[in-house]
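[stage:ingest] chain + small molecule (alpha-D-galactopyranuronic acid)
[stage:ingest] validated
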Amino acid sequence: MIRTFCQHEIRRSCELTGSDWQFRPLSGEHSGRTFRVCTPNCWETIPGFGSYRGEGEYIKHFDAHGNIRLEFKGIGHFAEVFLDGEKIAAHYNAYTSFDAVIRNLSAGNHTLSVRADNRFTDQSALHVPNDYMSYGGILRPIVMENIGDAFVERIHVTPYRERGKWNARIEVCVRNVSGAELSADLEIMIGEEKLVFSHVKIPGNCQEVFTGNLSFDQVQEWTTDNPVLYTVKARFLIDSRPVDDLIDRFGFREIRVEGKEILLNGKKLRIHGFCRHEDHPQFGAALPFEAMAADLMLLRDLGANAVRTTHYPSDERFLDLCDEEGIIVWEENHARGLSEEQMRNEHFEEQAEQVILEMTAQHYNHPSICIWGILNECASHTEYGRECYRKQLDLLKKLDATRPRSFASCMIKSDICLDLADIVSFNIYPLWYHDSEPGRYLADLYDWVQDKSGGEGKPFLITEIGAGAIYGFRAPHHDKWTEDYQAEALEKQLNAVLAHDGCSGVFIWQFNDVRVSQEWFAGRPRTMNNKGIVDEYRRPKLASNVVRECFDRDAKTQAS
Ligand code: ADA
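[stage:predict] done
[stage:export] tokens:
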């Protein structure tokens, strides 16, 4: 499955990922050997490659002809792509899509080679040894599309209310891949409403953005209780003949900050969330759609209404599910815990800003995304770090002024970037990394924020709080790493956060146990981050009952 809805009625597309791929390691003891695999695939799931850090090649033979577009949804984490031996694309970072357009392909069988490299090098400022795993391989689907001389590359829909009515500003980007100027018509439909651009001219090898507005008399808003989605269709016609199209989805909803509140359609938003890594012992980061859907059912059952995509943009199919389920999403660019020295890597700013560009362009229409985040626990306590935060938060605002921006900080009482964010967010671990009493610790931090920190008067979120537990480890002593301790700690932590009237909510760290890179390790039992409320196989720990009770109780309190 590519998306949970049909993206085309005219353009032909098919998923190239699936069976009948070959994997060849290009370094190490196994180089030269060939393995039959199915994709998407993280090579760490191939027997003998559990800790393989190096280069690998995935090969697929397929039939095609004419103009084709290949879209790669996620390759970990340096990618180079070759078609019939010719390089057609390169990309860094595993968590955003990239594409290649090939013109006038001869009819017949062709060979696609996807080379992935998951090594940690100076060229990689974002994928570094860390408290999560940087897997190698084809993490997300690859799609082949048959296109003509031009195709509708993207549609962005910005719903907004004006004089009591809902409107939508629509931007459609069309790419002319032929060498000659094209004269064409463009139709954009939302329900019965239609915009028509007639006899538009697009120069050869150029792209044009067409913008228009539509008004609506009667719409249903997207809310967490009633997440109504609408379909937008763009059709591209040459000589009145439809030659290409693109379909996307959006929701009529408005998210904004007012004083210390986050408002969804004018109503105060209360976050009962989890931080979620894309990780599974059988699939690595290449979770199949069914596994994502199962995670969301579990999250719902735990009383959650929100997910924070830690620490990188999410698979768009998971976002589709969040759109359909009315789950609030904080989506962030890719970074975790980078020191000032790591942020001074010559590639850091360009790589981090590129993720923002791709994340906002590719995920713009998802109504579930209500907060954009950046740079989890990076050096926001330093002047150099501040410059990076400022540039990235400014870039986010330029690309999308409709969503509030934030960053999760661990610079307790030393953060110097809070004035740059719309929402103030902190990661705290009382009862785990320090034995502070959660209520007092939170109140002390909150009071510091309100005292001319630059974050005073803004909404305040706890974006991480939690404790570790090894699944199945129970003991009368209830010491750390027992499920008993985790349950007791979470109860005190959640009660403290949800009782604090300055908090708009919480994202628990974390939903599921995840593998960490052995190069980072940091004393993690099992080379895993064991703070999941469910383990890596999604088996619930004792703390899951505590979370459900706390979230349900708070939901009732808020509703009363
Ligand atoms: C940090 C970090 C998380 C995780 C967590 C932990 O808050 O943002 O990625 O590493 O600590 O488990 O300690």
